[in-house]
Amino acid sequence: xxxxxxxxxxxxxxxxxxxxxxxxxxxxxxxxxxxxxxxxxxxxxxxxxxxxxxxxxxxxxxxxxxxxxxxxxxxxxxxxxxxxxxxxxxxxxxxxxxxxxxxxxxxxxxxxxxxxxxxxxxxxxxxxxxxxxxxxxxxxxxxxxxxxxxxxxxxxxxxxxxxxxxxxxxxxxxxxxxxxx
Length: 181
Fold this sequence. Notes:
Elements (H helix, E strand, L loop, with lengths): L11 H31 L6 H13 L6 H24 L2 H25 L7 H12 L5 H24 L3 H4 L8
Helix pairs in contact: 1-2, 1-6, 2-3, 2-4, 3-4, 4-5, 5-6
């Protein structure tokens, strides 16, 4: 978590984990971009669940948070979503995909909330509300409204990914002495 006044020495594992976390943000915006494009242009919503799972998996595995309880909650929800997504691809039960999506949206909301503190932008916290709205709209016939919501989600996630790639790598690690192990 960002401590701009403290610059931690990063080894190669730290640099790889920060790079993978940032790659997760890029994959997340790609996933939502595909969904927005298919809803607005294609006439049907198709969001690649496997890409969403890969993005959330990268982010949760390489998460740098001081609080052990919140870190485990985010990682546990990501693992549960991964298992549900794998079960969906195995058995093709739609309820499994909905449950996996709920887990992934929970993790993405929590990460956006975390990043709102890192960038000191309170409006990034609205990503969670937009994800809840998108989740509810997936059960409605309003495809164009869902496309607009997905487009705004994609724009917010692209902004976070852009900001993450711009900042120095040591901002993601923060001060190691503050971590609960």
